[in-house]
Task: structure prediction
Amino acid sequence: MNTKIVKSELIHKEYTLCTHESGLKIFLYPMEGFSSNYAIFGTKYGSIDNAFINEQGEKVDLPEGIAHFLEHKLFESEDGDAFTKYAKTGAYSNAYTSFDRTCYLFSCSNRFYDNLKILLDFVRSPYFTEATVNKEQGIIGQEIRMYDDMPSWRVMFNMLESMYHNHPVRIDIAGTTDSIAKITHKTLYNCYNRFYDLSNMFIVLAGDFNTDEVLSFIYDNLKVPEKSAEDTSSVIPDEPNEVKKHFVSMKLDVATPLFCLGFKEYESNKTPNEKQLVSMEILLKMLAGTASPLYKELLEKGLINEEFSFEYFTGRGFALPMFDGESAHPEQVMELILKEARRMRKEGLDGQLFEAVRRDIYGKSIRRFDVSESVCSMLTDATVLGYDLFEYFNCLATVTAEDVTENLSVFTEERAVLSVIEPINSKGEN
Result:
């Protein structure tokens, strides 16, 4: 058992990292006296992983949406589905597929080891048949049609489709009705055996438990295959620097136009490191946070409302700052964001605002260690994106205004993509 304690002298936090002989990473964050335990069993396999090189050196293309489809099917087994088993223990359970990961989780206030056993069992016991796959195609097909009509979902994916030429982040996580129709139980087993290899997976636990006891339990109950996958990496195509299209619009049943504005970072297939994450988070809050001059101007002019938000949208191999919300004049919102970025480049950052924002992000990030779900989320992000969680806090403590200023170069018209959802009865491009 390869086990080490990972400590941060800066924030006085620590967790245990155990690397199983299979390559599985196990992260344990004990929280003595805490009333609830939280667990994630995940794999670094998401919707962007739709192609790989097989043992013969040939590229194998996978149906779009198969990672999400696999997540749905994994809850089923020959002796009943996992949701039913969790219902008997009183635990909350769920799963999700994003662009770069698939995660299975539960939270509970009692019967922790019973729930952990269920998680370890069903994630490591795939059971797919032709009949159950055919049934699921109908269910997921309905889900796809629902998301196609969901304005908040559609406005973001329209933006991604217009920004990227080749990168699979532009593809809807659930795929299309045509793509999922190509999925068979054999395809699911093929993907599972490749991307659910333990060397590509991780377990994250936070709550009131004994570390040694939990590790022993995992080792005793983990199903380890006789043979590991030779390679769990996927093929991500090269992406040109230029955006595919700067503007896209669609009409749906909305009362007020929705917009999603993104700015393409040029370093194709590169995942942001700790310093980049920190500096962009600070910059976005300085640029458009509630204390910023821009936010006040947008609000006073009636260009945004309380639905306005922003984030540094990142994943394995992609990153872009993104703004979204409701606005009758989204083009003006974009113009003012670009104008404020130009002003900040010319005049420099407000030192007082920089320090206030940095301290605010630092304080809120520290408080996330008081919530088991948040701890698991932070450790999951770190392992999937390949950065050190405690180094993130070191960067938060040492980042300079100059570091933050460097990120202003992304906010240009050449890198911008504006996606708009307009009311059905409005004039304009369809």
